[in-house]
Amino acid sequence: MGLFVAFTIIFIWAGHLFYVLEYVPVNYLSPWFYIHILLQVYFFTGLFITGHDAMHGTVSRYRPVNNAVGFFAVFLYAGMWYPRLVKNHYLHHQFPGTEQDPDFSPRSQNFFIWWARFMYKYLTIIQLVIMAVIFNILRIWYPDSSIIWFWVAPAVLSTFQLFYFGTYVPHKPPAY
Fold it and tell me: How far apart, in Å, do the first and last CA atoms of the chain sit?
């Protein structure tokens, strides 16, 4: 069942991305324009969660299949390197809420500072190069504005959603 769900999420993300790039005009006055952006944010979030589920071995009971799906999902998400994510995720579970936890920010509980530190720890130059190459390949067929609004913006916005619900809220110390 996990494999079915993972591939469904990947295909819905890819299908919707193709649909919006191909058929949805950038029209700031249309509510459908914004609905499609929000849908793509949601699908990007699902793509990363698929990779996260693979890190926990819940996509497939066969480790090579599980890891292949996780690798593919996070690469599609933002050119991420799955083995690096797995290493950091295990550190996160081994040392939650401490200096050794790569997801935790003991220096600041401010959402935006913590998010920026989080992104700095996970974003790599190679990843940015991969995304730049993909952006330029997409430019062959689609206008820059469509790529920015339907691929770049949803990817960035999904990091806020993932960070807020997956890291910030569950790991910040309670306010007394």
Answer: 42
What does each C-alpha distance from 34 to 21, 37, 59, 126 come to in angstroms? 14, 5, 31, 30
Report if residue 46 sits inside a domain: yes
pLDDT value at residue 174: 67
40, 154 contact by CB (below 8 A): yes
> What tokens appear for 116 in the block?
């920026």
Tell me, what DSSP letter sits at residue 175?
P
Angle at the Cα of 71 from the Cα atoms of 67 and 77, rounded to 5 degrees: 145
Report if residue 176 sits inside a domain: no
Q: What is the DSSP letter of 60?
A: -
What is the number of domains present in the chain?
1
Token pair in block for residue 149: 């609004």
**Cα gap 10→134, rounded to integer Å:** 17
What phi and psi, each to the nearest 5 degrees, are found at residue 172?
-80, 145
DSSP reduced 3-state for 28: coil
Query: Which residue range is the domain that position 146 belongs to?
Result: 2-171
DSSP state at residue 58: -
What would the pLDDT profile of 47-105 be if each residue is shown by its tens digit? 999 999 999 999 999 999 999 999 999 999 999 999 998 888 888 878 777 777 777 77
Determine if the pTM surpasses 0.85: yes
